[in-house]
Design goal:
- It is built from 6 helices and 7 strands, in the order αβαβαββαβαβαβ.
- It is an alpha/beta fold.
- A 7-stranded mixed sheet has the order 3-2-1-4-5-7-6, with helices on both faces.
- The chain is globular, with a radius of gyration of 16 Å.
- The structure holds S-adenosylmethionine (SAM).
- S-adenosylmethionine binds next to strand 2 and helix 6.
C-alpha cells in the first residue's frame, strides 16, 4: 500500500494542501470509516469532478479499496490509514465540503457514547475544517444511535435537512449502498438515514 501514491501514509503534512495533492481545485468530500470501499469507489466513478478522501484505521480493508481504485482506473480518491480521532489534524479550515458517515460503531454503553462518530466530541472536530453549509450524510442500522445522533447534530448547530427511518422504502433516489448496508438489508434491518447541514457560526 505504501508504494501507491493514492494511499497517504503521512496525511499530517498535507494539511491545507490537499487540492495540491490532487492537482486540481475540485471540492473535497470525506468518508469516515470507509471499510472495503464500495461506497467511495462508486461515488468517485460517478463524480470525477469531486476529490474523495476515505479514512479507516484498518490496513486490511484499505487494501481492498486500493485494489478497486486501480481496477476502476480512478485517480480522484485518496485513502488514509488513521484513527478518525485525529481527523482535525489533517485538514485546514474550510478544506472539506461534505462528510459521509456510514454504519459507524454504535458504542451502546453510555460510558462509550463519546466514541460515536456523530457525538459532539467528533462534530466539534469536524467543524474546524468544514465549509459553512457542509452537509453530513449519515446512515446506520442502529435505532438508538440514530435517535441520539439527531440530538447531537442539533446540539452542535447542524440543521436537519432530511430524515428517514427506512431508506429502502423512501423516495430518496441518490442512495449508494455500502457493504454493511447490503448485509443489514438482506436481514431485513431498516436503514436509518439523515442529512445534516452545518449552519454558519458567527
Ligand atoms: C461497521 S464498519 C462500516 C464500513 C463501511 N462504512 C460500510 O458501511 O460498509 C466501520 C468501519 O469503520 C472503521 N473504524 C471504526 N472506528 C474507527 C476509528 N476510530 N478510526 C478509523 N476508522 C474506524 C472500522 O475499521 C470499519 O472498517
Amino acid at each position: 500500500m505504501e508504494k501507491d501514491s493514492k494511499a497517504i501514509i503521512d496525511p499530517y503534512v498535507l494539511k491545507g494542501k490537499w487540492q495540491e495533492n490532487f492537482g486540481n481545485a475540485n471540492p473535497i468530500h470525506l468518508e469516515l470509516g470507509c471499510g472495503k470501499g464500495q461506497f467511495i469507489t462508486t461515488l468517485a466513478e460517478k463524480n470525477p469532478d469531486i476529490n474523495y478522501i476515505a479514512i479507516d484505521l484498518k490496513d486490511e480493508v484499505l487494501v481492498f479499496v486500493l485494489r478497486k481504485l486501480n481496477e476502476m482506473g480512478l485517480s480522484n480518491v485518496r485513502i488514509i490509514p488513521m484513527f478518525i480521532e485525529r481527523v482535525d489534524e489533517i485538514f485546514e479550515k474550510d478544506e472539506v465540503s461534505k462528510i459521509y458517515i456510514n454504519f459507524c460503531n454504535p458504542w451502546p454503553k453510555v460510558s462509550h457514547n463519546k466514541r460515536r462518530l456523530t457525538h459532539p466530541r467528533f462534530l466539534t472536530k469536524y467543524k474546524t475544517f468544514i465549509k459553512p453549509g457542509t452537509e453530513v450524510w449519515f446512515k446506520t442500522d442502529d435505532d438508538d444511535l440514530f435517535e441520539a445522533s439527531l440530538g447531537y447534530f442539533e446540539e452542535e448547530n447542524f440543521e436537519e435537512l432530511y430524515r428517514n427511518w427506512d431508506l429502502s422504502e423512501s423516495d430518496f433516489k441518490e442512495n449508494v449502498r455500502t457493504e454493511y448496508e447490503e448485509k443489514f438489508s438482506a436481514f431485513g434491518v431498516k436503514i436509518k438515514f439523515g442529512i445534516f447541514k452545518h449552519r454558519e457560526e458567527m
